[in-house]
Queue: 2 jobs
Job 1
Amino acid sequence: MTANKRIVLSSDHSAIQLRQDIAVHIATLGWEVVDIGPTTPESTHYPKHGKAAARLVASGDCRLGIILCGTGQGIMMAANKVKGIRCGVCSDTFSARMIRQHNDANMLSLGVRVIGDGLALDIVDAFLTADFEGGRHATRVDMIEPLEG
Ligand code: RB5
């Protein structure tokens, strides 16, 4: 399977079950899932998991990434510190579609304490089935990376 169907999943301790449910779901859609854990419920620190997933996307090893924590916010902040990562937190399908179409997001973040499991899977579907539109949006996206210090 080529790198463009590889997707990395990670989370902190709060979202292990939902992450594993998402892994099963997207594997049925033909994605090669690289689930980097964690798998045990001890309290852990979302920045290290966000960073680890983001590095696999930034390196090109995985085309996309999905990360989760309680709100989706902390792990998103960590992932966005990795050069080349564009990660958005989504709690609705419209935003999940738009961050692909207009922002060329390469990572999606979800908050397990914010949304239910059914909505989470719909958001994942919206994210994975949308494509970047390019054009004027590419001009804007190209302005993001130079902002990185
Ligand atoms: C962990 O309790 C919680 O703070 C974390 O999952 C996340 O919500 C942080 O943004």
Job 2
Amino acid sequence: MEILKTKKHMQEWSVGKKKTSKTICFVPTMGYLHQGHISLLEKGKPLCDELVLSIFVNPTQFGPNEDLDTYPNNIENDLRLAEAAGVTVVFLPQKEEIYPDDFQTRISLDFLPDHLCGKSRPVFFGGIVTVVTKLFNIVMPDVTIFGKKDYQQFLIIRQMIRDLDLNIKILGGEIVREPDGLAMSSRNAYLTTEQRESALSLSRSLKMAEQAIAGGEKNSGVIVKQLTAFIQSFSQTRIDYICFCDPQTLEPVKFIDKQTLLSLAVQVDKTRLIDNIIIDPIQ
Ligand code: PAF
């Protein structure tokens, strides 16, 4: 496994692979890898000749009071896991490599970022789309894989790829959960034992909603009220949103009579957690 730290080396490597008609699958991450990331690498491994992982904690997607400075990291462990997952190259740039002093471009989308996480994190998706576009230009992948725990991010990157006519196939990876249901996230590392119990309110809410819908409840407002009360019964929780919405446009949905995304964001003390499920009431 090679570790490349500069854009020049990464691009030269990718151009070399293209010249010999090798295909590249790319999984971008911010590191502190867990089984969710590994599942993306495992999904990508058989699809292309080469598997590239990037590790870069992207400062432009963090707001002023967010956890950029404390974001967990363990590069040695990440490299060990990457190698075991069959990664051929890790792209590991420094901040200055991605954002030189005179950097001033920001890519934005018109509608998808107006919903869910975009409402309370105004700089989040602009920062993500900008860095991912740069990473795509540096790594030059044929295929890229994004986890669907960050469902809105997945939709936004897919839209950006279409809108900018990038010749990249994007695939989504399913959410990977701990045995007790907690969706895997690098941020789970922040949780104390008590907070981790509160964090379970997210996945349990998704199950409650599924059961309510299976039992005939179609009014999203009624279920949101139930879930709000449930999540608030756990200590240190602060709900950012509980939203039933269209899984393609993210427009809120009042009546659940077709495939619907239920997406949640809850702050447990200082840790922001998200989770989601797609519910099909017809099944
Ligand atoms: O999902 C993430 O880890 C990040 O948002 C990404 C896609 C690596 C961009 O910084």
